[in-house]
Write a structure and sequence with these properties.
Layout lengths: L1 H22 L5 H17 L3 H8 L5
Length: 61
C-alpha cells in the first residue's frame, strides 16, 4: 500500500513540476531536480522523507 501512495504522490509532483515550468517559470525544473536527487539518495541510504511522512500518517507497508 505504501508503494502505491508513494508512486502516486511522486507522479503527481513530477506532473505538477512540468506544468508549472511550462506555464509559470522555467525555474520550476529545479523542483524536478530535487525529486530526482531525493530518489537517487534514497536508493543508497534506504531512507526517504516521503516514506517517513506516509508511515507517520498511518499508511501500512
Amino acid at each position: 500500500m505504501l508503494n502505491t501512495y508513494f508512486r502516486v504522490i511522486v507522479g503527481f509532483m513530477v506532473l505538477l513540476m512540468v506544468s508549472l515550468s511550462y506555464y509559470v517559470s522555467i525555474n520550476w525544473l529545479w523542483f524536478g531536480v530535487f525529486i530526482g536527487i531525493n530518489m537517487i539518495q534514497s536508493a543508497f541510504t534506504k531512507w526517504c522523507l516521503l516514506e517517513t511522512i506516509l508511515l507517520k500518517l498511518g499508511i501500512k507497508k
